[in-house]
């Protein structure tokens, strides 16, 4: 951060208000990027059933779309060739030919690249549901100053997985996250309320400071974002970990209690409505946010984009989050939806706590007002195809 006049609280409040005007363009159906509770084992794509899709030459691939997807695919290749595919569709070596070609692909047709090296697979019935997410920007600073009092924490050193025998394994087989108390007993980690009441203060884990706790709450839901300081400098932060406690969507809680909806006396069922309620009812709003016991920890990011589950930058209009049990991370995905702006070729580079099941996707739109508007209103239905390296169907015995 450049040196300059330290802002007072009045200036900080003004910056918060300006940021909210753009943040409130988003709707409540934006899907949380943070990790949710671990789900029990479920069928993979292979177990669910796959069938050949149409020839890629018959899809309406455009050069613009394919060129952006090729760039995103190229960035994913080192990870694709070194990780285990949880969907059962591919093996690391299956990607070698396509990735070698991608690395050396010059100015030739990007559509031709995908047609030459991939074939389409329909997972299950192929019926797709796609939502959207974006990279929010809120007022914050890499150092504490008047009006910037909400800590942004890195992963605490005492957040660990239980040793075998110290706790019951999760349904996935992993040991749960938590901490060891002074007597050596493993206990759940501090929840949101405890952390916000100061459970982690004084440990030196603060990586930045936000100006508004409500804005920061919604940035946590997204799982990554930007902090813009009064001097105009920007710090990008990304998901680094989570406290191991279950995610609760407060919009659903408010709807169940009749606080939001279309009825008389109810607040609008949107992010605007949720935030309006929280600000007009501070005590109830604080209690409502605390019902989401999940708490996200961040790390500072260096680069030109937030990192997805493959640890490579996600790209606007090219990256999509998917359930890795049904889509190989790094694989191209073809979407044909009732929202034209989400049609086309995407690369599965991310996951999400609410992105579960076959043909469930979350499209990434970047940052800024337009991204917030599109992501906030995105809820599209249609068909999906997963693109896998040529020869995959034959190896799987799918005719």
Automatic annotation (TrEMBL):
SMART domains cross-referenced by the UniProt entry: MltA
Keywords recorded for this protein, A-Z: Cell wall biogenesis/degradation, Lyase, Signal
Name recorded for this polypeptide: peptidoglycan lytic exotransglycosylase
Species the sequence originates in: Novosphingobium mangrovi
Taxonomic path: Bacteria, Pseudomonadati, Pseudomonadota, Alphaproteobacteria, Sphingomonadales
The keyword Zinc-finger is assigned to this record: no
PANTHER family reported for this sequence: MEMBRANE-BOUND LYTIC MUREIN TRANSGLYCOSYLASE A
PROSITE patterns in the cross-refs: PROKAR_LIPOPROTEIN
Known catalytic reactions: Exolytic cleavage of the (1->4)-beta-glycosidic linkage between N-acetylmuramic acid (MurNAc) and N-acetylglucosamine (GlcNAc) residues in peptidoglycan, from either the reducing or the non-reducing ends of the peptidoglycan chains, with concomitant formation of a 1,6-anhydrobond in the MurNAc residue
Entry EC number(s): 4.2.2.n1
Signal peptide annotation: 1-35
UniProt domain Lytic transglycosylase MltA: residue ranges: 137-299
Pfam families recorded: 3D (PF06725), MltA (PF03562)
